[in-house]
Specification:
- It is built from 6 helices and 5 strands.
- The chain is elongated, with a radius of gyration of 24 Å.
- β1 (about 85-90) and β2 form a beta hairpin.
- Helices cover about 40% and strands about 20% of the residues.
- By secondary structure, it is of the alpha+beta class.
């Protein structure tokens, strides 16, 4: 009976050890493949209008989660107002897709700029509404300053 208990414990230790094997050992011993995360959204999303990015479920979930209670405002949640073409910009050493959009028929008082990294799903935004400004996401102080500069360039600089 004691020998059987020892064998059972040895079996459990071996089974648990095989599950915790590093990748090279698992490949060599033919263990199961680790789960893979879904592929990040394509950087070609920069060629689409902002509302088209919402077709990506991960972006939509993250954006609406960051909006919180403000997701009830359709122009913010759906990003469906007038918008210039998105473009790539660099902030520090990171590359982002810049999206600027506004509330239909009220662009001067309700507008936003979004910096979105499709590679790691980072989203930072500056939203201007008639009663003030708000930051979306958790931008660093440097990123917040850059968002404000980008917003001024997009929404307060006279057309050329």
């Amino acid at each position: 009976m004691i020998a059987m208990q020892c064998r059972f414990r040895l079996f459990l230790v071996c089974a648990l050890g095989a599950l915790a094997l590093p990748g090279w050992a698992r490949d060599r011993l033919g263990g199961p493949e680790p789960p893979t995360s879904p592929a990040p959204p394509s950087p070609s999303a920069a060629k689409d209008r902002p509302a088209k990015l919402l077709a990506d479920a991960r972006f939509r979930r993250t954006w609406r989660g960051l909006l919180g209670a403000h997701a009830r405002e359709p122009w913010l949640a759906q990003m469906n107002g007038p918008a210039p073409e998105p473009r790539w910009v660099y902030v520090g050493s990171s590359r982002y897709v810049l999206h600027a959009f506004c509330k239909p028929h009220d662009c001067h008082d309700n507008n936003a700029v979004v910096l979105y990294s499709p590679f790691d799903l980072r989203i930072h935004a500056w939203v201007h509404r008639g009663q003030g400004n708000m930051l979306i996401g958790t931008p660093s102080p440097a990123m917040a300053g850059e968002l404000q500069r980008v917003w001024r360039r997009e929404w307060r600089t006279p057309s050329r």
